[in-house]
Amino acid sequence: MADNSPSNSGDDGNVWTVGRLLTWTTEWLGTRGSDSPRLDAEVLLAFVRNCQRILLYTAFDEVVDAEQRQKFRELVRRRGQGEPVAYLVGTKEFFSMSLKVTPATLIPRPETEGLVVRALDVWRQEFSGKSGMRVLDVGTGSGALAIALATHMKDASITATDVSQAALDIASANVSKHALDRRIRLFQSNVLDHPDLAGSWDMIVSNPPYIREDEFDGLPDDVRLYEPREALVGGVTGCEIVQRLVQQASASLASGGWLFIEIGPSTVLAAERSISETSELVGEPTLKDASGLARIVQARAL
Questions:
Q1: 153, 158, 219, 241: which has the fewest C-beta neighbours closer than 10 Å?
Q2: Residues 10-38 pLDDT 10s
């Protein structure tokens, strides 16, 4: 970082206030390719000061002490090298909930919130808010989907799986953080292979790996270099895991049960074809995200 960076407070006769730190850091991160330099600066400074981000706006004139400046400078340096903010601070907000994240899990994204919204809409409209819903989250990662659904489906029975034990450890911490230990069961399983997952599910949701092998090198550096590859890449076609999930879900959903899978634009056609070729399922229209990209494939069990 430059010699006039926040670690050198006082060298130019000025002091590093909250406002000055945010301005300098926003400009510097902008030169390092951050898509959201101001937000990054605010999240990192709020983390160092152990305060809510909104409180920074009432503290613009406060001087930041040397210890906090040094911690902040190190985080900003790492962010400038591409390390995701969520990994730097150890948390990410999802559906208005704070979740612990580490490099063992994907960072929850706004697009995935659409999966929660759709599942809740179907629960209310198609199941009339049915009590005792049996819901399965396949590939839970940090536990984001399972926790969001359990929070809003107050008496649903939620089961979440992941092939990675390291990811399940993070999911377990998040389940406990949100006091849902009695509501959410966790299993290590490759898709639905675990014997305890047999049975009739009212709803199966999943954000599985769906990136094609040949797409991986083109991902942004802060994704490709830091997030777990096994949670991103679905195989040569990108749909290998999705196809397994569709096949196993067709035999595991209750009659009238629903399947929701997050997918990417490059693999949506293969995912839709997998559903249409499965006689036990009836495909529903694929949903788009806020950017107008195909994002959620869905089906009902006969």
A1: 219
A2: 445 579 999 999 999 999 999 998 999 99
